[in-house]
Write a structure and sequence with these properties.
heterodimer; A: mainly alpha; 7 helices; B: alpha+beta; 8-stranded antiparallel sheet; 46% helix
Chain lengths: 172, 353
């Protein structure tokens, strides 16, 4: 086990920091990590990338209640996830959904998948995803002032929407 | 599978050909996938992990993909062999150093691999030399589809493919382009470049991924976001910055050539001289000198060695490769001697061609 860089207690937090293209690994114990992270926050360098699992507990006063929640499927607690940064099973995304959404948004800036679907996915969800993807492409095309593409995408979106309404009632 | 035979062959991605190969060494795409009926590996016991390995191995033989994938059981390998696979970029350090049933299946050309029971149950990877994003995507997408015929992957309507770490959720895709940027390193412009890449949420890593140093002036540029963009959008995002990076590097090389050709030529010829005659040499110095020589060949200053030979030497001179070649454990001093001997032989052989 690695020792804390600042004192000699065992390090429980391992931080990879990217600063100006240089990756440095820092190993800290819990109390030193708290100091370190609050410093880092003050400096608020946009390129310093702290992994979310190092967001220390106790930052939010209500955190203790949330952290004790358990996934009924694999038995992992939210606290365990926070300390190791890895989930226990696919069901955690549902079991911890309310707490994971802000985290996911923080990491990716989005919370809706718009990539490929398993081939076995039913037709209706296939079309829903097609819509999601087309809409995101449309947003991008408008941002880039690529109006020709935007117009084509708008037509495609309308077409899929009509198909969806024809097959089953839209969800919204 | 006999890993020793690999020391005689060259990985496909080291060929040193392909588009933009003066700067772009290789292109890699990986997909993270998990089997829906098992917990992620942090909560999977050895029995579950064993079943995951079995399910994957059982379907490998029948996969409708053109390449045969041979499975290597990582726990049964000695430490040098594990490190050897890491050096060849076939497995990650995490898989090498992990525990429990795990392994890797890869093609003979080493351009396709599937790690089993790394952070996720499956990590599919396709690796190509040069800039080859579309080919990589096409192949890995086909392989993913083929696996999906046999296995059920954990998938959620909103969050996409579910992964052990939320940083990979959604597409599970990581697109990396490995660049050789010696001129930008020398002119110290590299920091500016990285800063601008980080602003648009692209990550920069060294030769062996996360946390590794940029040995030999090699840098990997890759995406950070895996959710909210389609796979092709992620690929396009990485692709969009490459022309500018190539342009910066080539311009910096050209400027060095115009402003101080003699000095540069001397520097590169000396690097080549040391590599051809040293009796003992460290890994770090080797990487540094090979990097200079590689740039010298690309600038036409020297022509007595092929780029593919240099690419190969970056890998062959690493600790586990040297020990595999010598078929014995070597301490650091002996490795330095073996490394120097390998360089002398290999570079002399190239000059005769």
């Amino acid at each position: 086990m690695k020792k804390c860089r600042r004192c000699s207690k065992p390090a429980t937090l391992h931080i990879t920091e990217l600063r100006q293209g240089e990756a440095t690994e820092i190993h800290l114990c819990e109390s030193c990590a708290k100091d370190y992270l609050s410093q880092a926050e003050e400096m608020s360098t946009p390129e310093s990338e702290l992994q979310f699992d190092q967001l220390d507990e106790g930052q939010q006063p209500e955190a203790s209640g949330i952290d004790d929640r358990v996934c009924p499927n694999c038995g992992i607690t939210f606290r365990e996830f926070r300390s190791q940064g890895r989930l226990g099973c696919p069901h955690d995304y549902v079991a911890f959904e309310t707490d994971l959404i802000p985290l996911i948004e923080n990491i990716h800036g989005e919370t809706q998948h718009c990539g490929k679907l398993p081939r076995r996915a039913p037709d209706s969800s296939r079309r829903q995803h097609q819509l999601i993807r087309l809409r995101s492409e449309l947003r991008l095309a408008v941002e880039e002032e690529n109006y020709e593409t935007a117009a084509r995408l708008r037509d495609e979106i309308q077409e899929v929407e009509t198909q969806l309404q024809g097959n089953d009632k839209p969800e919204e | 599978m006999d890993l020793n035979s690999l020391t005689q062959s060259n990985s496909e991605w080291l060929r040193g050909t392909g588009p933009e190969s003066d700067v772009v060494v290789s292109t890699r795409i990986r997909l993270a996938r998990n089997l829906a009926e098992f917990p992620f590996n942090t909560r999977a016991d050895d029995a579950a992990r064993g079943q995951i390995v079995k399910q994957v191995r059982d379907c490998l033989g029948d996969l409708p993909v053109p390449k045969v994938l041979n499975y290597v059981d990582v726990p049964s390998l000695d430490e040098i062999s594990r490190q050897f696979l890491v050096e060849r970029q076939l497995i990650s350090r995490e898989l090498a150093e992990g525990d429990g049933p795990r392994g890797v299946a890869f093609s003979t050309a080493e351009d396709v691999s599937i790690m089993v029971n790394e952070e996720d149950h499956l990590r599919l990877q396709v690796l190509r030399s040069g800039l080859s994003l579309d080919d990589c995507w096409e192949e890995i997408n086909r392989m993913d589809d083929a696996l999906e015929e046999e296995l059920t992957f954990a998938f959620h309507e909103r969050y996409g493919y579910l992964t052990a770490c939320p940083t990979n959720v959604g597409t599970g895709i990581r697109v990396s382009v490995m660049l050789h940027l010696p001129a930008l390193v020398q002119t110290r412009e590299i920091q500016k470049v990285f800063h601008s890449l980080q602003k648009i949420n692209l990550a920069v890593r060294g030769l062996y991924g996360e946390g590794s140093q940029a040995l030999g002036d090699f840098y990997q540029i890759s995406n950070q976001y895996t959710l909210g963009l389609s796979e092709t959008q992620v690929i396009d995002k990485v692709r969009s910055v490459i022309p500018r990076l190539l342009d910066y590097e080539r311009r910096a090389r050209k400027a060095m050539l115009e402003e101080k050709k003699e000095q540069l030529h001397d520097h590169i010829a000396r690097a080549s001289g040391i590599l051809r005659s040293a009796q003992t040499i460290s890994s770090e110095e080797t990487m540094h000198l090979l990097s200079s020589v590689r740039m010298g060949v690309n600038l036409g200053l020297i022509d007595d060695v092929a780029i593919s030979t240099l690419n190969e030497l970056f890998i062959m001179t690493q600790p586990a490769h040297l020990q595999k070649l010598k078929k014995s454990e070597l301490d650091s001093a002996d490795r330095n001697k073996a490394r120097a001997a390998l360089l002398r032989n290999r570079l002399a052989a190239d000059s005769e061609d």
